[in-house]
Structures are given as structure tokens and as C-alpha cells.
């Protein structure tokens, strides 16, 4: 008969929030405020000046303000319910859920910008280049400040070097989604400035919607990458690197053979694991745990001896 031995005979919590959770939450709130203010300015300026690139940047920033607000709310919710026993493995993945929602919004934004830009290629409108350029420059400045605020909290790098898309590597997908939204804003601002300057000095009116299309393609790619990574966490996809490390460490236990192994993320800096071992004489759960101590990612471990 199998014997299940939990990591601790006494009751223990399942709080798997990131070490920088509170700091990241504060930084995100600051970025929400900055984005909301600039959003209003760019949308108004876009309508007044007639710039598609600037208007796209404004509406893009509007959706980002909403997505960033979701990120801020996710931090708050995860902290308030961290000890709620209704969540079997805590609220460490709330940020991944928020990140997935943000990725969906980002994808819809890219689609909207692309469609509107194609229309503007065939039906160009008059653009007030000087006014629009200044507003776009201010918007870019806000994006740079926001990116600095968010990137300053990326102190916990991925130990395994996985590609996390643009920006600094981070295991906090909620923060990463906010960072990508800000980068997308910065990209559309840069493209808008380039298009407006070319239109003013070279007469390239067509470049304004073309830049909108280019921005839409890049943003769509970022959206897909973020959606893929957050979905893998939400669906408890096995972390092969950690699983391979577990197999390697237990391979040195004479008379022990892994019959079942599950390793998945339960928080920005934490994994859970269930390992079932067919053990010979002298092999017990304590020995298995000692063998797996070097696997620092495992914050919650269940050992089954058969």
C-alpha cells in the first residue's frame, strides 16, 4: 500500500507570492496613474490633429491603462487572499491569470490598430504634424518613465535563462505583462514620431498608417509570447528543467526508482512537486527529501513511497 508523506507533519501555509510582490504592486500603481493621464491627452490630441498614428497610440494607451489596472488589482487580490484555504496552492498564480487577460487585450489592440491603419492607407486624412509630433514625444517620455519604474523591480532573474520576450527577464508574469504593455506603448510612440516627421518634412503621408501596421505586427507577436507563457503556468505545464534536476538527484539513490513525477509552478518564484518512488530497503521519505534539497525551486513537495 502506498504511503503519502507530506512535507511537514504540521499544518503549513501555501503563500507562494514573489519576494518583491508589494514593491511590484506599488510600481504598477504609479504606472497606472501616469498612463491614464497621458491616455486622455493623446486621444484628444489625436482627434484634433487628425493623426492616425497618434490616435492609435492614445487608444492603445487607453487599453493599457485598463490592463495595468487589472495587474494592480491582481497584486491586491493575491495579497488579500494569500492565506485563504479555498485556494489549494495559494494565490501565487493570480498574476499569471491577469497576465493572460492582458495578453488577450494586447492582441485585440494590435488587431484594431492594424485594421484601422489599412483603412487609412486607402483613405488618408489631413494631419497636423507639428502638434501631433509634440504630443507623441511627451507620450514617449511617459512610456520611458513607466518602463524605468517597472524594470527597476526586475531583480529576480530566471535561474534557467528562459526567453521571456522583450525587456528584463522576470518570473512575475503579472509584472511582465505590465512591462510589455508599456513597451508596446513606447513602440507605437516611436513609430508615430517617425511617421509624423517623415510626413512633415518629406511629404510621406502614407508612412503614418504603414507605421501603424508595423506596430500592430510587433505588438501581436509580444501578445502571443505572453499568452503562451502564462497559459503554460495556468495549465500546470511541467517544468522540464526542474523535473530533470529531480530525476538526476534521485538517480544516485540506490534502490530508488521514480514511478511518477509532477513539477509545476505555483508562484513567481515557487514550484510544487509530487514524486512517487519505488524504493528498496533503507530508502525512506527523509532520504528522498535530503536528496532533493538542492532543488531550491521546490517550495511544496509531496513524496510517495511505494
Outline the structure in words.
- It is a single chain.
- With 306 residues, the protein is an alpha+beta fold.
- The chain has 2 domains: 21-234, Alpha-lytic protease prodomain-like (Up-down Bundle), CATH 1.20.1510.10; 239-305, 2-Layer Sandwich (Alpha-Beta Plaits).
- It has helices at residues 21-49, 52-80, 94-122, 129-151, 173-202, 207-234, 240-250, 285-292; strands spanning 3-5, 256-267, 270-279, 298-305.
- Strands 1-4-3-2 form a 4-stranded mixed beta sheet, covered by helices on one side.
- Helix 1 packs antiparallel against helix 2 (52-80) and helix 2 packs antiparallel against helix 3.
- The chain is elongated, with a radius of gyration of 24 Å.
- The model is unreliable at 1-11 and 153-170 (pLDDT under 50).
Amino acid at each position: 500500500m502506498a504511503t503519502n508523506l507530506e512535507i511537514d507533519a504540521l499544518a503549513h501555509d501555501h503563500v507562494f507570492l514573489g519576494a518583491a510582490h508589494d514593491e511590484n504592486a506599488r510600481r504598477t500603481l504609479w504606472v497606472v496613474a501616469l498612463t491614464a493621464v497621458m491616455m486622455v491627452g493623446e486621444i484628444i490630441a489625436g482627434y484634433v490633429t487628425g493623426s492616425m498614428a497618434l490616435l492609435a497610440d492614445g487608444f492603445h494607451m487607453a487599453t493599457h491603462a485598463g490592463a495595468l489596472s487589472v495587474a494592480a488589482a491582481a497584486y491586491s487580490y493575491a495579497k488579500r487572499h494569500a492565506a485563504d484555504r479555498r485556494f489549494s496552492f495559494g494565490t501565487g498564480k493570480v498574476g499569471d491569470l491577469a497576465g493572460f487577460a492582458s495578453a488577450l487585450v494586447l492582441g485585440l489592440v494590435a488587431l484594431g490598430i492594424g485594421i484601422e491603419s489599412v483603412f487609412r492607407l486607402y483613405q488618408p486624412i489631413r494631419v497636423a504634424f507639428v502638434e501631433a509630433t509634440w504630443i507623441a514625444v511627451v507620450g514617449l517620455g511617459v512610456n520611458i518613465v513607466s518602463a524605468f519604474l517597472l524594470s527597476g523591480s526586475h531583480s529576480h532573474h530566471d535561474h534557467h535563462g528562459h526567453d521571456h520576450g522583450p525587456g528584463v527577464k522576470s518570473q512575475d508574469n503579472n509584472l511582465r505583462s505590465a512591462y510589455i504593455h508599456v513597451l508596446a506603448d513606447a513602440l507605437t510612440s516611436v513609430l508615430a514620431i517617425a511617421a509624423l516627421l517623415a510626413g512633415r518634412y518629406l511629404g510621406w503621408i502614407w508612412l503614418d498608417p504603414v507605421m501603424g501596421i508595423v506596430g500592430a505586427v510587433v505588438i501581436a507577436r509580444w501578445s502571443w509570447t505572453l499568452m503562451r507563457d502564462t497559459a503554460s503556468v495556468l495549465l500546470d505545464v511541467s517544468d522540464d528543467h526542474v523535473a530533470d534536476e529531480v530525476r538526476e538527484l534521485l538517480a544516485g539513490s540506490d534502490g530508488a526508482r521514480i514511478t511518477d513525477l509532477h513539477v509545476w509552478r505555483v508562484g513567481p518564484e515557487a514550484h510544487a512537486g509530487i514524486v512517487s518512488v519505488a524504493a528498496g530497503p533503507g530508502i525512506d521519505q527523509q532520504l528522498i527529501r535530503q536528496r532533493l534539497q538542492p532543488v531550491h525551486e521546490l517550495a511544496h513537495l509531496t513524496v510517495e513511497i511505494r
